[in-house]
Amino acid sequence: MSLKLKIRLSIALMLVLLLGLGGYTFFSLQRLEGGARGIQRANFRSVEYGEQMLRALEALQDQPTAQPPLQQLRRALTREAANITEPGELELVDTLTQQLADYQRLVDDRAPATAQVTQLHRLRAATHRMMQLNARSFNRQTDQAAAAARQARRTVLALLLLSTAVGLSLVVRLPRAVLRPLRRLRADVEDVASPGPATQVSIAKNDEVGAVALALNRAFGYMQDQRSVTRAALATERSRLESLIEHLDEGLLLLDPDRTVLLANPVARELLGREAAALVGRRAEDLSQETELLNALFRPLLAQEGAQAGTTPAPVTLTFARPDGETAYYQLTLNHIVSRNRETGRTEFVGHILSLRNVSDFKKLDEVKSNYLATISHELKTPLASIKLSLMLLQDARTEPEERQRLADGIGDETQRLLGMVGQLLAVSRLDAGAEIQFDVQPITLAQVVNYAIDTVRPQVDDKELQLRLELPASLPAARADVEKTTWVLINLLANAIRYSPRGADLCVRAHQAAPQELQISVQDCGPGIALEYHERIFQRFSEVPNASGHKGGSGLGLSISREFIEAQGGRLWVESEPAQGSHFCFTLPVAG
């Protein structure tokens, strides 16, 4: 049964009880009122008429022949004759009528006064009997009306008690019938909302509460689906984030606002030589007291008071010893994590991040650059000292003319060497500054470039007695390039080949069309060769390749500048080499037109 039907039936029952009580009371009162009116009409008036007749008889007793009392007696008797209601009353009225007629004859016949008085006594006696008859009937009907009133009072009282009992029962049971399923529904909803196995609200009855429970189950089902989707998305994002953190090439430690380690990725654990269990869950103050490395790691964090409002300290460089004996350099950066609370609209401090970035390559590059500057300073100093000595000898008048010419040639060679080194430095400085080097790209013949480069390095080739071989087909099309920059690249490749080639070895310069729109030039030597892992490194600035042959390397800039020159013209520069097999440097240029 639905709650609405229960409420309607309860209100209808109370209404029926109220209507029954009111209707019974109304009809009982109406019946009592009708009985009172009937008594008044049937008996009270007859007694009143009898009293009028007695007063008329008293008046006739004093004046037997007086007409007004006689008329009053006759009028009262007439009214009584019209109001006969009781058994035997009709006979008494007939007797009174006969006696009144007999008295009227006595009066008319002027009978003796004694006869008239005797007749009046007879009328009085009959009148008293008539009044006594109506009085007894009045008392009897009054007793009946009183009994009916008592019965009506008892019935009304019973109905009132029944209505009260029913009303109290409804007052107690109706709220219970309405609230009990609501309380049960609330308890079920709390069970579903709280952590536990409950996932649905129980449906006890097919009423309004059951309909609400069914709707809640549908809502909970949708929420469960959404929660599952959200959990899956969170799990995916968490897995993705953990995977990202786990595979970072930087060391990462996450700490809460109390400086307790929450997370340490594999790189950080490997650098610190600790397992995750030895780091996670421990405070930075405790860990910093264990080793000097941990003390240096947490020093920027512990040295900063009021970390929530503090500024980010400057990065610190830490050194770590690798298992292979090399020293690794890591840059330590401390960042404070803040998050905006959407509910309060305020920014809250939630923790710290310590990151360790590997700067070993930059450190080594800086060292190489420093070494290069020292080397280039030495190389600049040597030719300058030679030039200065040659100038001093030239100023000496005792120097022979042949010796003066030799000294002048030496000064020229040293000057050209200085110009080459300064040119490389200027090119590097322009490239580092982002300045665009101007290229005069136009159709050129490779024979012109190759012959000029060979003529330039010919003295060095002859000095080492190298067997130079040139493979340059006459049918090669023109290339689109800058003749000056391309010649500089080829000279640099030939100079490297001459430097690393043994005396009397073969040296080959080739040019051919590698593709319909591409020409390839290569320089092949018989030097010590280059291992595969260094094929790209040699094109980096200030790079040094381990060399077991004892040859002294150059500045570490030539190949880097050469690659940038070739790529700027739309070509490529690479090396093909193996240890002890010589080196084969190649570069390409686009075909003109």
From TrEMBL:
Q: What is its EC number?
A: 2.7.13.3
Q: Which GO terms describe its molecular function?
A: ATP binding
SUPFAM superfamilies referenced in this protein's UniProt entry, alphabetically: ATPase domain of HSP90 chaperone/DNA topoisomerase II/histidine kinase (SSF55874), Homodimeric domain of signal transducing histidine kinase (SSF47384), PYP-like sensor domain (PAS domain) (SSF55785)
Q: Which residues form the PAS domain?
A: 237-282
HAMP domain: residues covered:
176-228
Q: What is the lineage of its organism?
A: Bacteria, Pseudomonadati, Bacteroidota, Cytophagia, Cytophagales
Main localization category: membrane
Would you say which domain of life the source belongs to?
Answer: Bacteria
Q: Which UniProt keywords apply?
A: ATP-binding, Kinase, Membrane, Nucleotide-binding, Phosphoprotein, Transferase, Transmembrane, Transmembrane helix, Two-component regulatory system
Which InterPro entries did the record assign?
BphY/WalK/GraS-like, HAMP_dom, HATPase_C_sf, HATPase_dom, His_kinase_dom, HisK_dim/P_dom, HisK_dim/P_sf, PAS
- Give its localization: Membrane
Name the record gives this protein: histidine kinase
User: Histidine kinase domain spans which residues?
Assistant: 375-593
Which organism is the protein's source? Hymenobacter yonginensis
Q: Please give the SMART domains that the UniProt record associates with this protein.
A: HAMP, HATPase_c, HisKA, PAS
Q: Which reaction does it catalyse?
A: ATP + protein L-histidine = ADP + protein N-phospho-L-histidine
Q: How does it sit in the membrane?
A: Multi-pass membrane protein
